[in-house]
Amino acid sequence: MKEMIDFDDELSEKQLEQNGIENDMVEDSILQLLKAVGEDPTREGLKFTPKRVARMYSELLSGYHVDPEVMINGALFNITYDEMVLVRDIEFYSLCEHHILPFMGRVHVAYIPDGKVIGLSKIPRIVDMYARRLQVQERMTRQIADFLRDLLKPQGVAVVVEAVHLCSMMRGVRKHDARMTTSAMHGAFRANLATRQEFLDNISRGATPLQI
Ligand SMILES: [Zn+2]
Fold it and tell me: How far apart are CA 67 and CA 2, in angstroms?
C-alpha cells in the first residue's frame, strides 16, 4: 500500500514546478545533512523530512522566480494625487543568507505619487517577492524601495523594515542585535526633512513593539 504523506502545506504540483527550484537537489542535500549530523534518515519521524523541507523551501524561496509584470498585472493607475500614500505593518518572513534562518517583522512603505499609483494589495506582493529569497535585511529594504521608484517614478519613496533575526536569537551570540531597523529613502523623503519626519511620525504612531 502506498503511504500517504501529509506535507502540511497547500502547494500544488504546478506551483512546485513553476517556482524554478530543483526540488530533487534540495531533497538530496537535506538527506546528506541528516546523515552528517548523525541522524538516522530512515527513522519514522525523518523519513519524509527531505521531501517536506524541499517543498518548504520551494515556498519560502519562491521570490526568485516571480515575474514582476505578471505580479503587477496592470494594477497601475494614472491619477492626480500628490499626497503621501502610506502602507504600514506589512508582515513578512524571510531567510537570512548567512545562516538560512528566518528573520521576520514588518515593512512600512510610503510614496508620493507623480501621476501614477499602484493598487494597494500589490505592495505586500512586492514585499514577498523580495522577502522570499535568501536575504540580508539591508538589501531587501533597498530592493523594495528601488522597485517602487523604478515602477512608479514617484516624487519620493520610503521603506522602513523592522525585523528580528533568529540567527542572532537562537545562537545566543549577539542577542542585543536580534532586532534591527533598516530604511531606504529616495527623492522627497531623502531631500526633504519634513516629509521624512511625517513618514517616520506616522509609522511610530500607535506602533506596537515587534513580538515573536
Ligand atoms: Zn543570519
Answer: 37
Determine whether 167 is an active site residue: yes
C-alpha cell at 29: 542535500
Question: Is residue 17 among the annotated active site residues?
Answer: no
Average pLDDT over residues 87-113: 97
> What's 101-148 look like in SS3?
CEEEEEEEEEEECCCEEECCCHHHHHHHHHHCCEECHHHHHHHHHHHH
- Note the pLDDT of residue 179: 86
Residue in 27, 108, 165, 186 annotated catalytic: 165
Task: Count CB neighbours of 88 within 10 A.
Answer: 17
pLDDT at 17: 67
pLDDT for residue 102? 96
